[in-house]
Amino acid sequence: MPTTLAQKLYLLCYTVEKEKFQLDNIQGRGQLLRAGAMTELARGGLLDATGGKVRRLPGNPPEDPFTAAVWYDLPEDKPKGWLNFLHNKAHSAETPVRDQLLACGDVTLTRERKLGVISTDRVTVMRPHLVRDLQDRVRSTVLNGAPAEHLTDELAMAVLAAELELTSVWSKADRRAHKSDLKAHAARFDTLVPGLRKALRDSYLASRAVGGGWST
């Protein structure tokens, strides 16, 4: 299984029952992957989110190249709004994370033609049962108790998946039935990384309005 939060979030978007990444679950995935990297940077003390804005803190860059690239994108001096660093480079986030999963054998990539004319990349998950386990752990972090005190992967994934309305994790009925629990977890996430969740939601809604999404 993947090790970085961005890699886990990529796979979280997979619908196991339908054996594919559904279009409505990948429209905001570029932003989601960058949000995952920023969450890891916050957890590692490599960014400052005081006042709901973000700046890079000094330190050694992360070992993971994708997370490191996101870190280098952040401003060193004057803090700026999260949206600048979630939205503008979302189109470039999917390929490096996907290629990491390819290298580890978590997914495969095939080239297909639609209607015999348009070529598209099809990503296939090799161990769907492990993705299902991941999705179940994410759901249970909300359904089985109070929000975690620390910024765990499961807390982050549960909250970020809800903001992107990922049906692979939360159906519309789930979000309605567990609205108060999801709200409590979102509030906890906001105390740990203020401003990131709202920026992700804003970016997702802007992309969805124009049919956004950069991968299949």
Low-confidence stretches: none
Shape designation: globular
Q: Helical element count?
A: 10
Give the strand order, joined by hyphens, for the main sheet: 1-2-3
Mean pLDDT: 92
Summarize the amount of helix as a percent range: 40-55%
Strand content: 5-15%
H and E string: HHEEHEHHEEHHHHH
Distance between the termini: 21 Å
Major β-sheet, in short? 3 strands, antiparallel
Radius of gyration: 17 Å
- Structural class call reads mainly alpha
How does this structure look, described?
It is found in: Golgi apparatus membrane. It comes from Streptomyces anatolicus. Keywords: Golgi apparatus, Lipid-binding, Membrane. It is a peripheral membrane protein. This is GPP34 family phosphoprotein. The chain is mainly alpha-helical and 216 residues long. 50% of the residues lie in helices and 11% in strands. It is built from ten helices and five strands, in the order ααββαβααββααααα. The chain has helices at residues 5-12, 29-43, 65-73, 83-87, 94-104, 128-143, 153-163, 172-177, 179-192, 196-209, and strands spanning 47-48, 53-56, 80-81, 107-114, 118-125. The strands form two sheets. It has a three-stranded antiparallel β-sheet with strand order 1-2-3. The protein has a two-stranded antiparallel ribbon with strand order 4-5. β4 and β5 (118-125) form a beta hairpin. α2 (29-43) runs antiparallel to α7 (153-163). The longest helix has 16 residues, at 128-143. The mean pLDDT is 92.
